User: Fold these one by one.
Assistant:
Number 1:
Amino acid sequence: MNFAAIRVIYRAEMQRAINTLFQTLASPVISTSLYFIVFGSAIGSRIQTVDGVPYGLFIVPGLTMLTILTQSVSNASFGIYFPKFNGTIYEILSAPLSFFEALIGYVGAAATKSLVIGIVILLTASLFVDLRIEHPIWMLTFLVLTCVSFSLFGFIIGLWADSFEKLQIIPILVITPLVFLGGSFYSINMLPPIWQTISLFNPVVYLVSGFRWSFFEVSDVNVWTSLTMILVFLAICLVIVSWIFKTGYKLKE
Amino acid sequence: MDSIISIQALSKVYDNGFAALNHIDLDIKRGEILALLGPNGAGKTTLISTIAGIVSPSSGKILVDGHDNVSSYRAARQQIGLVPQELTLGAFETVFNTVSFTRGLFGLKPDPDYINQILKDLSLYDKRHNQLRMLSGGMKRRVLIAKALSHAPKILFLDEPTAGVDVELRKDMWRIVNRLRESGVTIILTTHYIEEAEEIADRVAVIRRGEILLIEEKDQLMQKLGKKQLIVEFKQPLATLPDSLEGYDISLSENREVLTYTFDATADATGITKLLLRLNEAGMSLKDVRTTQSSLEDIFVDLVHNEHNTPEEAA
């Protein structure tokens, strides 16, 4: 293993976030606060509780998921797309470095950033509501697995994209709708039966549900089902990445 | 021959069907400076990119210091430093950090003293904390060289190193190249500037359409292919060419004051003595006599533009 290489890639990627620390942290903090004002206070005051949880509190896990999914995908996709765009990828390709090692560096850094942002959002949320976490270990497990899987997913998008438009289209067209329709701001039990069934095809439902369970012990689907689904998603991403690794897809000619 | 790079039957066909490299066999000697000379699109960059591992070969085999560059890619790539043709650098890193980054990619521990020494050698030391985007093109080129040297490679590839580079940097670059060669580094540079190959290379490989047309010691190449010219200037214009000069490969300038005789310098009889004797017999008084040797450029143009030239004929 070329640990030195993993370290420098990881550090260079983290450095990029540290250089822009204000933007990195300010945007999730501000948007979380806005969601709390709009959904938590304004609308939430008309909704008493969902599954016995005050609405302001109920949306915390979903809001956190919304942000870390988006951030994981955009951080990781940008992290690998940019060297392709400006040509510095030649260094990675000509170094005595396996694809897997590069992957750990890039995806590890993207996942770390998302994890930090997730924690910052939870801290911000605790300023607005009385946050309690029933199962901290489960909470962390879901948080870390989500950060890693979606960073991996973002990495794949970054490899696939050959323009900035493509880089942005997946987050806009896929991630945002999935998260909004994934029960971030409501329980899917509140939907008409047909939409409940349709929602079960949305992987984000399982993430949000499991994550929410770790806070309040209320969930739309069983927590083990949630865990299984995220592991399946992680496995799919790993399979795609190892296929890319074998073929050198879009990296090597 | 002690080869540091051995290329056997290397071909590269791109997905669009373009054959960039066509069955290349090439041995690069340890410690030499080899110039890969060829026009744009000849396959120079593809060749070095394939050796460095950026492009996957379609077929064939590359050994770098005895290591197969596919099956033992780590050991093979560890030997190589690559300076790309384009100024491909990030924008916001500092000079020092980007050079250290490359060293890390090669699995080496940070060594600030070593990095600083490289930066000093390349006159980058006082810019070490500058962001890359603040640097001029020439400075960026130096940074790319520093990055390529950050892991002390045995082999250095310079892809079009002097494209868009001013005279000063060019001199600096040759100074660095010479020093590296003295320390035992093998240097492969691609260029379409003949003077560059002529100035610095030990051997020259001429590449065209993915094929190596010839590879030869530079001096021998110039001697073998080099025609010499005898240039004679007269005090008065020459009215008519004396009959006695018939059969000589002679051309006369428009003002009829300069005569150029082209001959083969390696031949037993060059014909110079007789030519001068006959000019004397014809009563011509001479103002100046000099000889010139054709440059690598002439040789190159000859080779590349002569469709029917095969390597054997050319050599």
Number 2:
Amino acid sequence: MSEKSENLVEIRHLKEYFNVNVGFFRSKPLKAVDDVSFSIKKGETLGLVGESGCGKTTVGRTILNLYKPTSGEIIYDGKPIKTKNDIREFRKKATMVFQDPYSSLNPRMTVSDIIAEPLDIHKMSPSKEARRERILELMGYVGLNSEHASRYAHEFSGGQRQRIGIARALAIDPEFIVCDEPVSALDVSIQAQVINMFDELQEKLGLTYLFIAHDLLVVRHISDRIAVMYLGKMVELADAKEIYDHPQHPYSKSLLSAVPVPDPKTARSNKRIVLSGDIPSPLNAPSGCPFRTRCAHATKKCAESMPELKEISSGHFAACHIL
Amino acid sequence: MDKKAFSAHVDMEDFIPATDKEKEYMVSMRPSTTFFKDGIKRLKKNKVAVVSFFVILIITLSAIFVPMFWPYSYDQMLGMMPGQPVDNSFLNLTPFKYGKSELSRIEAGEHIVPHIFGTDSQGRDYFIRVVYGTRISLAVGFFASIIVLIIGLTVGSVSGYAGGKTDLIIMRIVDMIYSLPDMLMVILLASVLKLVLENALEGTVLSKIGSNIISLFVVFGLLYWVSMARLIRGQILSLKEQEYVLAARAAGAGGKWVIFKHLIPNCFSVIIISTALQIPSAIFTESYLSFLGLGVNAPMPSLGSLASDALNGLTSYPYRLVIPAIVISLIVLSLNLFGDGLRDAFDPKLNS
């Protein structure tokens, strides 16, 4: 029982299918997220990596109930999120930082209105002065000047815009933030600043992150544990150091071999595992293990059944038949 | 250390990093501009639009204020005095001519306001009739556009935001309305509503304007909103995919909040522009309906009915047709040019 209260967010068998029209009247389910389970402990950062289109963003959005899950359970702080009331309460504790700092800020709103929007929606500021003070406090957290409050989003650079987005996410004093590739639209020097800011904020405010990214170095820097996704399924989940040092699943191995190493000597000695072929369309995913079409170790069994996510060493989970 | 004139020696003093105070001096903030201010700035640069704006302003202001101090009213037959025989000298006066009784009063030293455009066949001052006609035409154009805007905006934003089946059904209804011949509908409705409304309007302010104009408003409310609704729906459809809408929903915003705070403000330029362009088309419709005799009720003039009445004496008094025609053209032209200017200023993307 003690372990349960430790988990802030728990996902059980989450499925998210979208209906895609093929032809005039027929539609087919697109399995964006297919049976994913994991949990995030309080104060922890879980990194979620995978290539484009593997369902990372969908997982993040479904957790926040922006998409209605097709099936599965989202348990927050020991309570399942089901009814509209649950969702409304949940929205006061969990927020999101978006990938694109350009389209995620309304061009017709001033920075202070953008930041205070969640407060206004939940009617959480008792007076105008309190609202203004809260805005300035939030801008201080993310390193924005108080003079910026009355300006419009288009007057800022990408990094500053992302800070505005983060300040908005912090407005309601959240416990849990889904960061959906928050730095991938920024250039490298700004990335470092923003990432460090995420770290500092976590320490200061005791936040829990689900950090979605495709930049493996960024994820390694910020995450306590890392989950690897492939084609809507979770293939490996382990501590950040463990997964970098001893990746078990063949997909994780090849993914991690693609990480650029700053030292040319070690880079030359490292062997890159290059996958053949493209990621299959999620509309007609391969039977059994979705990775088998590109896996060097694929056997007959892989085509027949999807391997379970099993614990191969303490805290290290992987879904592969050969392990 | 003394330096020679052509020495390449670098003085290290020049390369000391600036102190914070010095840096502060260098930082100057550009004054914050809003989208609206930017648009106004661009609009001011467009001479045609500015001139059109002033033409509209002058016409509108005179249509509102001139009747307040003008000594004649639109339905006053100047030759008719209570208890006296009709003075025929007031009928069909040419511009700046006076009737008999007025001439004698001028001789007595009184100042009489001249009949700038003369009088019509019933001895009514034509200038004030044109001003009144302009007032009616502008009012019809303005209110019809507001009706179109309100209905179009509501239907368009609901349809666009809801999407799915709701959108499908609403858009098929819009398609059906689109296919109705609008002029036929105006004429049919005008004749039906005449019977229905005549008694209901009796004694109210609206009876002066007449059931025909009411039916015109009804037709605008029933038929003309569809293009506005389509336009708004298209805008909303593309805007609702923006991440800031998702951000608002992640913060717990409902449909109402998203539509009013995010979607409508962002299609504001489209709304203003298409409303500005809707006014002249409504004025046009009113004018030719009045010309056909389906406009305002008799003593009340509108620009179209003035032109229609002028047809009878066209050979003798051609200016009676020319004046309302010029006013209509002036209003419609300047509103169109101003609308174009607005579009160029507020929607630079559409320009190219």
